[in-house]
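Re: the 62-residue chain
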Amino acid sequence: MLNEKQLKEKLAELKSDYVRIQGDMDKLEFVGGRVSSAEEQLIRLEDEIAAINKRIEAIENK
């Protein structure tokens, strides 16, 4: 199981991925590309970020 530091590192990584994919999606929309795959990735990342935030909160509230 990951400790708090590892969870925060993973959270930073996920947030970075989210911002990158969001930028890619904006570019795809601009050129009329297909964005459904990027949207699916963003939803998955949002779920992962929420889960990690809950785990960090649980650790901090012990």
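DSSP finds two helices and no strands in the chain.
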